[in-house]
Amino acid sequence: MSDAFLVADDVTVRFGGLTAVDAVSLTADRGEVVGVIGPNGAGKTTLFNALVGAVPCDGDVRIAGHGVVGWSPARRARAGLGRTFQRLELFGSMTVEENLRFATEAGALSERPWRMLARRRYQDTDRADAMLDRLGIADLASTPAADLPPGSARLLELGRALCAEPAVVLLDEPSSGLDVTETAAFGETLRAVVGELGIGIVLVEHDVSLVMSMCQRLYVLEFGRCIASGPTAEVAASPAVQEAYLGDVAAT
Amino acid sequence: MTDWLPFVTSGIVVGSVYAIAAMGLVVTYRTTGLFNFAHGALGMVVAYAFYQLRTEWGVPTLLAALIALFVVAPFMGLALDRLLFRSLERASQAAKVVVTMGLLVLLQGGAVAVFGARPKRVEPFLPTGAVDVGGVYVGYDQMIVVGIAVAALIGLELFFRRNRLGLVMRAVVDDRDLAEAAGFPVGRVTGFTWALGVMLAGLAGILFSPLLGLDTITLTLLVLQALAAAVVGRLVSLPITAAAAIGLGVVLNLSLKVLNDYPDVLDGVRTSLPFLVLFAVLVFARRGTLRELGVSAPWAGLQRAEPEGWKLLAVLLLLTALLMPDQRIFALGTTLVLACAFLSLSVLIGSSGLISLTQAGLVGTGAFAYIHLTAGAGLPFPIALLLAGVAAVPLGLAIALPALRLPGLFLALATFGVGQLLDGLVFSSWKSFSGGIDGLRGSRPDLLTGDKAFAVFLAVMVVLFVIAIGALRRSGLGRALVALRDSPAASASLGLDPLWPRVSIFVVSAFLAGVAGGLYAGHLQVASKTFFSTFTSLLWVTVVVVGGVQSVWGALAAAFLLQFLPDVVSTGDPSEWLAPIFGVGAVLLATRPGGLVGLLNRYRGGRLVGRLEAPEPDPEPANV
């Protein structure tokens, strides 16, 4: 078995009679960007939900060598598995800055709950401030997150996930709701940040150019099953994948 | 055996009426995702319309029933859908709960204003006479009631399975946007649903009126009996709901016979039984089987907590207490006690967005504990006050338990259950603790025996509450609660467990409520269970949300409006006209979580209260 940071083995999710994810295996390690692609309804988001523990699944999920079946989503997050959401899940009533600052302390608060009463102010603001600069949204620091335009909101969600210092982050369609320029800018920032922090990324994404330019390896899902996996160029060239998903876009 | 059968038959009859009401709840919830706390109150209004037509205006019984059920009820349903419920489609679950509770308060208060509080006798309208069925006499009226319930169940089931409109109704709640995009007449569907729901509530109300007499409270609280059955059916299944309702009716009636020899316990157990069922189902249900239907946003718009400005508040309150003329000082004291109770509730709702319907019971527990600790155990005043707070904490934990695993609506229902159990099993049955219906006499410490001295002390306590709440909101706990309120999924993705924040806030809220109860017993020098009913809790939540939960000023405003103002301007019973006003307020404001204080701020060009007192510059100014 692989000794990568995140290992999923034969993960299967059933909703009643429907098998949304069918025996999918996947690995992701620090420093690599892995893509998960497939048409709508292929089970990509459900796979993410199973990996973080938001929906129950059969099969084995391991984080840093620990079998995490039965762990809560919060515990898996503290073990180093972060995520973002296809439908934005920001803390709307907090400012941009507070979103990031809270991310730096959330895990610690759960590990030592008595600190919740003691800590009046944020203890460590450096990490959040650095992230603001890195993402280029420092001028929005005191804007309530609910009022952000989509481009900045996606960046903030990425930044918030990174502020929790994960080893591997699952990004669920980070470009949805963004236009072409914004997507390009997001890709640029993502590349820079990931290179700098040396974390691993699992990317679910419809934007083919973002996937092709970012990912070293790809997994292709269709109807919940993994129909192909391997290095990006190889997978993209396979006729089955082109037919199922990439179509003409990859060929051009 | 023949001794028991009459109890079983009449239990089936009562249960059938519960079933009709409960099916109405289920039908509306599963089509619109809106749980209607005012369901019973709507049935009550229809029953009053029936009474008015038949008894006051002399309309023949059948015609009166037809008009009430097929004109009045659908009209109310359609009107509510158009005017109120549609604007709630995407509101938070908390806002939905508060709005329908506001509607309950409004309808109940309105009915008292129009028809008076005195119960009306309703002549039986179903044929009398009975047949002998295997040794038991079964009345024709009983058979008719059961027949109606069975017909309603079969009719609704067929409708949902076969009829096209029924299928569309199922589609609407699964995905409203998709249903709309597919060209289904979503608006007509929800209107039809509410018409149907009010008709079922009205039918239950009319059938009940000759059995129980007609008064505004009993039928309004019919929603509670129906609720337990509907929750057994997971708020989705009609047959299970109907079966549970009938089972409940039978068990309740059998308990009459079994407990006949223990009249003291009888009342408490009988009223509590449905809530034992309700609470057990909610707490022990398998995870995921209780699903909230429909879209619901987090309580967005519950923006940043306003700075509490306790220094200005301290000056204001102390001056008020010192300068208040003697004939008003007692009323001021009562207001300040209520302010403490409201603060204990507002810190919970404001920081976590969770609704608890047990607060009056927690305050009552504190009040009784205080009296036993001072008069009984002879403990010094400050210690008794602290321990009164501690006494309420186990109950806070009992509510926190379901809070960990239930989504907002079901949590509100569970806390409702706890409140009713507390009322029925503890306050009503344990008479040495609560003093029964007469209550217990309390006392004040020697230093504070005068009304003025005690009022000044209460003002200090309010300020202490405000300071404590401010500290909590700025603490890590406060931030964790806001995060969990805004997005539980994102909180988990950052490693934040809901366990400790949720447990802590319920414990803090319960402790403050218990202390408020001690203050209550000290100020009024009497405490009786009648002050601490679940209906009071319900009114409090409505009033506190109307006042505004994002700052402590909202709770204070609510206390002054509910308690002090009526005392000054009116000599009659102010609750008659005040409750409906707050009902309207809740209906209008629950979607504006800022409440009255928030509205004031908005219309005065920004942050009125914040600007008036801002004791120190806000380190992170909000761009609201």
| Class computed from helices, strands and strand pairing of chain B | mainly alpha
Beta strand count of chain B: 4
Beta-strand residue fraction of chain B: under 5%
Number of helices of chain B: 27
Principal-axes geometry of chain A comes out as: globular
Which sheet architecture does the biggest sheet of chain B show? Answer: 2 strands, antiparallel
Jot down its keywords.
heterodimer; A: 252 residues; alpha/beta; 10 strands; 41% helix; 24% strand; B: 624 residues; mainly alpha; two-stranded antiparallel sheet; two-stranded antiparallel ribbon; 27 helices; globular; disordered C terminus
Summarize this structure briefly.
Chain A contains 10 helices and 10 strands. With 252 residues, chain A is an alpha/beta fold.
Structure description:
The complex is a heterodimer of chains A (252) and B (624). Chain A has 252 residues and is α/β, with parallel strands linked by helices. Chain A is 41% helix and 24% strand. Chain A has a 6-stranded mixed beta sheet, sandwiched between helices. In chain A, strands 2-1-4-5 form a 4-stranded antiparallel beta sheet, covered by helices on one side. The longest helix of chain A has 18 residues, at 180-197. Chain A is globular and about 55 Å long. Mean pLDDT of chain A is 86; it is low at 248-252. Chain B has 624 residues and is mainly α. Helices cover 73% and strands 2% of the residues of chain B. Chain B has a two-stranded antiparallel ribbon. In chain B, helix 14 packs antiparallel against helix 24 (552-569) and helix 15 (359-376) packs antiparallel against helix 16 (381-403).
Helix-strand layout with pairing:
The complex is a heterodimer of chains A (252) and B (624).
Chain A: E1 6-15, E2 18-28, E3 33-37, H1 44-52, E4 58-63, E5 66-67, H2 73-78, E6 81-83, H3 96-111, H4 115-118, H5 126-135, H6 150-163, E7 168-172, H7 180-197, E8 200-204, H8 208-214, E9 217-222, E10 225-231, H9 232-237, H10 239-251
Parallel strand pairs in A: 3-8, 3-9, 6-7, 7-8
Antiparallel strand pairs in A: 1-2, 1-4, 4-5, 9-10
Helix pairs in contact in A: 3-5, 3-6, 5-6, 6-7
Chain B: H1 5-32, H2 39-56, H3 61-83, H4 93-115, E1 130-133, E2 136-139, H5 140-162, H6 164-174, H7 176-181, H8 186-212, H9 216-220, H10 222-232, H11 238-258, H12 263-284, H13 310-323, H14 326-352, H15 359-376, H16 381-403, H17 408-428, H18 431-434, E3 440-441, H19 451-474, H20 476-486, H21 488-493, H22 499-524, E4 526-527, H23 534-547, H24 552-569, H25 575-589, H26 595-603, H27 608-613
